[in-house]
What we know:
By secondary structure, the protein is α+β, with helices and mostly antiparallel strands. It folds into 2 domains: 46-137; 140-206, Nucleotide Exchange Factor Grpe, Chain A, domain 2, CATH 2.30.22.10. It is built from 4 helices and 6 strands, in the order αααββββββα. The strands form 2 sheets. The protein has a 3-stranded antiparallel sheet with strand order 1-4-5. A 3-stranded mixed sheet has the order 2-6-3. Helix 2 runs antiparallel to helix 3 (117-136). The longest helix is centred in the middle third of the chain and has 71 residues, at 39-109. The chain is elongated. The N and C termini lie far apart (155 Å). Residues 7-30 have low confidence and may be disordered.
Amino acid sequence: MAGPKREEEKILSIDENRDVRGPGSVSTASDDPASADPSSAGDATAVTEIQKLRAEKEDLMQTLVRRQADFENFRKRTERDRSEEARRGVERVVTDLIPVLDAFDLALRGHDDPAYEEYRKGVTLIRKQLWDVLARHGVQRIESAGKMFDPHMHQAIERVESTELADGSIVNVLQDGYLFHGRVLRPAIVRVAVHPGDATSDRESN
């Protein structure tokens, strides 16, 4: 009984050492996917990732530049609006103070009596103080006497025939005009010289 048992064990040991892929199969390292060279696939993946990161970086930089430009424009617009609003506020105050300046001028012209000399000095001083404040805030008087009539600066309420003065020149100023930062705050009210022939032609045309 012992002889057949040993023979069976020997056969089993031979079968265990047999190549399970069958006859004609050749074992090579390339048949195993895990044994393939990973360097080429890894390099391609790295290049793709780098390109993706560079594109994202460029997009972020462009977005940052646009945001900075938008913020700078917003800052300038805000400062301009704030400055313009402050100027409009000063303009409203100046407009209210101009009649006070006119009142001082009227008071000074109405008291030529030497008995009022001290009074005139006081009024003149107060008037100068008021004018200095207005001038510091951008108010300028329109120089009109002896100038040519400018419809943007002057308002003519009367034309005076004259052959001695140039046609269109200002004869006298009835009320001073003022500029505020170069813009007409109030036009000067004036009389304008006109040649007699021109005046007759104007009347006939009317």
